[in-house]
Amino acid sequence: xVKLICSFVILFSFAVNAQQLGDDSFKPKNxxxxxxxxxxxxxxxxxxxxxxxxxxxxxxxxxxxxxxxGYSVKKNRVLFTAExxxxxxxxxxxxxxxxxxxxxxxxxxxxxxxxxxIEAVYQWVKNGGSLFLIADHMPFPRxxxxxxxxxxFQFNNGxxxxxxxxxxxxxxDKGTLLAHAILNGLPxxxxxxxxxxxxxxxxxxxxxxxxxxxxxxSAVSLMPNKSWEFPxxxxxxxxxxxxxxxxxxxxxxxxxxxxxxxxxxxxxxGAMKRKMGVIAHGAEQNERFLLNIxxxxxxxx
Length: 301
Known about the structure:
By secondary structure, the protein is of the alpha/beta class. Helix content is about 20%, strand content about 25%.
């Protein structure tokens, strides 16, 4: 019964989100820039790995939010090497895919990154770079799992759902949004008390990581063979205590990992133009949360 209910909830989510589009009319609430042109951190948004979220597409609002705080956001169109990452302060990777899974999300799913690229990112972070790695539900966790693993994170290639928290709100009061410098930001910021996510995956973090979003006792992950198909035989595990967001200080650099992508942008979906991301009801603090994450990655907090 739990699996049937969970499958219905996820399938309903898929139906209304099938035509996800970036909200072209979106304007950030933030109007005060932390960084001037002279000290603007350089952010590379990856577009070299068949990414589902791109600067001119579903992550256009994400870029607008970052630019509202003074970041210089550029497209990354090349494979990761020491040279391609040399001038970047922050690398953002959102929902990368291997070419074989661009039009087919069913198993098997493949890594989006070569071993050489993973090692390049590893060394870049170790030497002071900051990585913002985002991998949503199946097939995105499998595409990024080798990159996540080199930093100690274990991705789950499934769809997460919390039957007692269907709105997928993570709150300080419920103990699912944990204390972190990111919640406080800079003195001008209002403390973050609640953030909202939209399905995604659950993952395990290394012992030296600091969790941000933690799933409650009723959260489960379904791991189907075919994308968005959940027969009774679909494997299911409890993900109580697993994470959907965490941070890690690694060498001289920093890593932020999230198992959900829509929460950091503004999207409309379906014929009814259902609002998702920072413009959704219950996600009023998501924009500030994103800006605070970026401040942490830029080593400003």
